Amino acid sequence: MRKIIHIDMDAFYASVEQRDNPDLRGKPVAVGGMERGVVAAASYEARKFGIRSAMPSVTARRKCPDLIFVKPRFDAYKAVSKQIRDIFEDYTDLVEPLSLDEAYLDVTENHKGVGSATLIAQEIRARIKLATGLTASAGVSYNKFLAKMASDYRKPDGLYVITPRMGPEFVETLMVGRFHGIGPATEEKMNRLGIMTGADLRAQSLPFLQKHFGVSGDYYHNIARGIDHRQVRPDRVRKSVGAENTFFQDIFSADAARAALQPIVEKVWRYCEQNGTRGRTVTLKVKYTDFQQITRSHTANATVGDKAELSRVSGTLLDGVFPLAKGIRLLGVTLSSLGANDARPEPQQLSLAI
Hints:
Layout: E1 4-9, H1 12-20, E2 29-32, E3 39-42, H2 44-47, H3 57-63, E4 68-70, H4 74-89, E5 95-99, E6 102-106, H5 117-132, E7 136-141, H6 144-153, E8 159-161, H7 167-172, H8 184-192, H9 198-202, H10 206-213, H11 216-223, E9 240-251, H12 254-275, E10 277-278, E11 281-288, E12 293-299, H13 307-319, E13 328-336, E14 339-340, H14 345-350
Helix pairs in contact: 4-5, 10-11, 12-13
């Protein structure tokens, strides 16, 4: 039986801002663009008004006229994340980061020789508070799914343990929309099939779930029974890298859109250069002034060889959305199907414009 901890920082970006600026403490704070962006993170004071991450800033302002917008400082967040990661690695090498503010830890065997995962979670939370001044919530269980569910159960600044005996019963009582790995679209589909709770999900046969949800049916069949065989993977490979920008004024011309695309391409390629990764699939994201969003993708036989090629492919995808019926408020570029830079000069020549 494994011992898994899921650590999730509480309102991470917003909490860092409140820590570093005392004037923000106790007030509704949103990290993100005030005029035309989206909320990247919301303080718990803001969440009381129904403000959530990924919400358009104009909607957030409507819900809370006193909302304070703060520009994100990713260097600061990364520095705090490094402090937290160092604490994790004092206990185990089996750390799987999911983002800057959350990670799984497998402490079945650990550097401290502590037999209780609950005690380790308590100690980690205390050390995070001492080192950063921030609070973290922790979930402890015998698999990743339940550890993640447990960390959400007593937020903020909470600790919850789901034992093997508790697991199946805990899952049965929850609405399926609260399950990690079940998004709004899947929740709606399940509800149409009469699946509202974990108990309803457990009542379905594996063939039924496979028929309606494909390969995900196996996963849903297992988690409805408190089963999750996934291992904590410290070598978890990043599947994509992307960047996007929301503009202060809508873009209507192809020339303006191409000019706005270049800094986004450069940011994506900078990551690739720094990390020695390359990818084959380029995806362009376009969000219009009415918040309608489309994507266009191109997958090459060989990896994108340099910034010029990434710019060319992205530009070709962008050309495909013109002429416009409405303005563009956001552009994004993602490079996926990532792998190591294998420096293959011959194949890369095939993808260059002649």
